[in-house]
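name: query_chain
kind: protein
chains: 1
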Amino acid sequence: MIIIPFGFRQDESLTTLVAYAARNELSTMSQILDEIRNAYRPFGIEVEGVATYGTYYRLRCGRCGAQLGSVGDKLMPGMAAQIVDEQFELYACGLSGCKCGYQMERARSIDPQRAEATSRRFV
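structure:
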């Protein structure tokens, strides 16, 4: 089944339709990757390079460059920020992130009260 995008005339060629779909897919992928980068940036985590097949990207410490893991780009809009926010306590306590402690420092500077409450609870 082919779904014709809104505003696309049925008399336009299949080549034009494929080009339209590719433009929108690339635009969406770029937007998701930008959203992922923006979500991790405050915690001092850089999203870089393709890890596998263009759907996973390496996470590196912004201070020392250590690899922290990878993240996939198959997220819905808004999910990256929510995921990173839900990991705040792990970063604030040093349970996630780099051994150099950069993510813990960044979490404490982002929200000192939340980080302090987390420290009392987990340590």
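note: The helical segments are 14-40, 79-86, 88-92, 102-110, 112-122.
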